[in-house]
Amino acid sequence: MKRALLFILLFLPMLASADAVEIGGIYYNLSEETREAVVTSNPQKYKGDVIIPESVEYEGITYSVTSVGTYAFFNCSDLVSITIPNSVTSIGLYAFSGCKELASVIIPNSVTSVNAHAFSFCEGLTSVTIGGGVTEILHYAFCGCTNLESVTIPNSVKNIGPSAFQDCSGLKTIVVENGNSVYDSREDCNAIIKTSENELLFGCMNTTIPNTVTSIGAIAFQNCSGLTSIIIPSSVTNIGTSAFSGCI
Asked: Residues 135, 136, 142, 143: what is their CA dihedral angle, to the nearest 10 degrees?
């Protein structure tokens, strides 16, 4: 996706659903059939410290809070902190995009999916804890988080979408706990790109290569101008063509 389109999408006005109800300062879409609640956007924007509860009660019915919905906290520039409960299993498209004052996020173990652009352009974000239940981090999930310094990818993750960490200019280290996971963040050379069938295909930061990797593929670290050191584990038996070319 081109950056111009990203910019336009970032500033699209988003309103709460007409059916949303406000409970304790947070807006939800409720399903009586499943007894589930999805956090949705606040027309006045969320501010300060927000604690999402595991469940809410409305008109005598208790609902489990299972998702942070699409655009729920989109562009809430005054949001300082967020607490996501263990009942939440997914974080929606653009859920926290543009929350510039949000400094840290703990994604609980209950979450299995971090959707596209979920935390994009959270410029103040310095710390992210990714829970051990997350299986996918989709495209542009942390794009533009310029102050994010390090990320540990738990071994539950099986897929990281294209450009998940694009333009994370402060990112120094990505630790991959599972060498058999699949990654694809090639654009702008800001992350480990792919480890599939024990082959590390591409990466651009000072990186901990897991000892499950047996091969460093062609052009794996090509033109990684910021790379200052790398430790290759004894499990690696092959280094591909131009794997480190242009690492000035």
From this structure: 160
